[in-house]
Amino acid sequence: MELPYKAIVIGGSAGSFSVVTKILSKLRSDFPLPIILCLHRLKHVRSGLVEGINLKSKIEVVEPFDKVKIRPGKVYLAPSNYHLFVEYDSTFSLSTEEPLNHSRPAIDHTLSSAAYVYRNKLIGILLTGANKDGAKGMKNVADKKGFTIVQNPDTCEVDTMPKSALRLFKPDRIYSPEEIIFFLNQITI
Amino acid sequence: MALNYSITELKELAERLVAITNLPYDEMTHSFFKRRLALLYENCSIRKTQQFITMLEDEHFVDIVNEQFSIAATELFRDPGYWRKLRGLINDAEIELSVGCKVLIPGILSGEELYSFLILIEECGLSGQLQIKTSHNSMESIKRIQNGFMVSQKVETNNYNYKRFEGSSKLENYFVKESNQVCFKKDLLKSVEMEYGFFPAEQKEPKASIVIFRNKMLYYNKAYHDNLMEHIDKNTKAGGIVCFGIKERLPNHFLKRFECIDEKESIYRKYKFLTD
């Protein structure tokens, strides 16, 4: 049976590490879609984050190299100090272009490029965070008829990021982390 | 600004740019080309394709286009671990460097990567002894780099990186203030030759002992990486080293000619037994 979606992009900043690890620890180990994580992180610290997330995740988490093919059932974490883009041939492109919203990786870049490639087959999720990065990218996902979920600001450690998105567009769902987990496990049955 | 061009329209524009500049615009990744074009349109207030095509008749504008599609390194000693490793290879004589040895730094998109290397060799006592060949897609940028200017002046980041590089001096010692701008010292640039283009023309002997080609392949299609690698291979001496960005990898079929000597920092060495 063909799945209704081809990929998931999750963006987050301050406070999102614990939410992401919670989500990845509760997803089925045979989760069939690629999950692309774009989290704000310290640019001088190359290692540690992927290892930290891997400790809890049931699905393997990797930092992709440039031009790597996107495969289902894997979690890809945007590397530190690089932007992460999705290409039409289902590969990743990395970039050292200027920071966007003071961020590299920038969530807007990853979400927008994935929206253009996957269109209505993409799920975009925006979590807790302390700046407005990701809001425009989520709107782009919505404009391309992708499915959009914004973390309920009441459940966020810092609510600037989800609130910025909610000011720009009306997402399909506003969910707590537990509801996001339930939703993701449901759609792939 | 979003561009509503189809893939075909973007390809046509890329081919037009190739015809004018002889630079590989048609080999750029789709998302990169589209993104940079959108930025160019925004910065130059371009509204229509025909307007852009007409503007391309002006050489000065073409240079602006080339510069806009070049990505600045934006900081000195980006990835200090890599620079420490390179210094270690030089100091431990893992790279055979003698007077007149050649170093290629193709596509110096901004001065920072070049300046970092020049500081490194100054601290290794090799300043003025090596032939350093570089290239840039924009004549204006070449002039800017020759004058020691930097695109961004991220003093804090640069100092932090230099500290992590564990340099033997103070970063400020390599810069002077000129017309209210901090510039790289010009005397350190004396042994540097710069030419127009993405890659310096094929090198006469000696071939390069070091090729620094970090984060340049990111913006080009995978198929084009082979062309670039063939060019690098031809221009690197046996036993010479090639440095890529930490998230770039050598295409597999080149592993017969290059060995990885540092996986984390993405540094490769051309096998010594190969003939140049």
Q: If you had to describe this structure to a student in words, what would you say it looks like?
A:
The complex is a heterodimer of chains A (189) and B (276). Chain A has a single domain, classed as Rossmann fold. Helix content of chain A is 32%, strand content 20%. Chain A has helices spanning 16-26, 49-56, 107-118, 135-143, 160-168, 177-187; strands at residues 7-12, 35-39, 61-62, 75-77, 83-86, 92-95, 122-126, 147-151, 173-175. In chain A, helix 1 links the parallel strand 1 (7-12) and strand 2 (35-39). The model of chain A has no long low-confidence stretch (mean pLDDT 94). In chain B, strands 5-2-1-6-7-9-8 form a 7-stranded mixed β-sheet. In chain B, strands 3-4 form a two-stranded antiparallel ribbon. The longest helix of chain B has 15 residues, at 7-21. Chain B is an alpha/beta fold and 276 residues long. Chain B has 2 domains: 7-68, no CATH class; 80-270, 3-Layer(aba) Sandwich (Rossmann fold), CATH 3.40.50.150. The interface between A and B is medium-sized, with 23 and 25 residues.
CA-based gyration radius of chain A: 15 Å
Quaternary structure of the protein: heterodimer
Point out poorly predicted stretches of chain B: none
How would you classify the helix and strand content of chain B by structural class? alpha/beta
- What is the CATH top level name of the largest domain in chain B? Alpha Beta
Percent strand of chain A: 15-25%
Taking all Cα atoms into account, the compactness measure Rg of chain B is: 19 Å
Please summarize the sheet with the most strands of chain A.
7 strands, parallel
CATH fold-type name of chain A: Rossmann fold
The CATH architecture term of chain A is 3-Layer(aba) Sandwich
Annotation, overall tally of beta strands of chain B? 9
Question: Which sheet architecture does the biggest sheet of chain B show?
Answer: 7 strands, mixed
The CATH class of chain A is Alpha Beta
Mean pLDDT of chain B: 91
